[in-house]
Q: What sequence folds into this?
């Protein structure tokens, strides 16, 4: 006999809030380290570039496992996970060639991850706090396109990626704070 537990929407909101706070904190620390590492392109820069998409894939997987709506399609989340893992590998390779190659890969990933993020945020809007995630997904598409163009033009600076990630951290923080206020209202 198998028993299963279901996660209620308020519990899912709490789980998302926790995840968003963790993602915001991780991203800020990562961005600071990237700025430092970008001064001397080398193994630390490569490691940082690989870690970020792997962390993103893990966070989306964790969100999928916590989602109570098991009956809805999770295709956009799985696309995000698969793309993020493939990009981690591609960034590891590209960063050994040049910063501009890594910038192109990052840009392609930002576009590829931004679209599913936007779709997931629209689907999760019932939990609240998703407007910043919708904006983040849309901005990812535009920023990613910009990174690809910069990389194709031979740009050697990758610090802009840290700014892009920090903006994402702000969106996660705003979503977490918004979810906190929604959860407080539900408790009352």
A:
């Amino acid at each position: 006999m198998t028993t299963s537990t279901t996660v209620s929407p308020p519990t899912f909101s709490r789980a998302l809030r926790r995840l968003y706070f963790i993602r915001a904190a991780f991203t800020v620390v990562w961005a600071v380290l990237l700025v430092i590492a970008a001064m001397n392109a080398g193994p630390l820069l490569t490691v940082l570039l690989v870690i970020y998409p792997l962390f993103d894939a893990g966070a989306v997987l964790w969100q999928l496992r916590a989602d109570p709506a098991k009956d809805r399609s999770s295709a956009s989340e799985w696309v995000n996970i698969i793309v993020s893992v493939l990009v981690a590998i591609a960034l590891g390779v590209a960063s050994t060639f040049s910063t501009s190659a890594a910038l192109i890969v990052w840009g392609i990933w930002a576009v590829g991850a931004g679209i599913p993020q936007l779709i997931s945020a629209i689907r999760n809007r019932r939990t609240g706090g998703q407007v910043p995630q919708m904006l983040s997904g849309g901005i990812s598409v535009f920023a990613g396109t910009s990174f690809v163009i910069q990389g194709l033009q031979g740009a050697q600076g990758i610090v802009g990626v840290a700014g892009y990630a920090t903006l994402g951290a702000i969106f996660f923080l705003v979503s977490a704070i918004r979810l906190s206020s929604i959860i407080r209202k539900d408790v009352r």
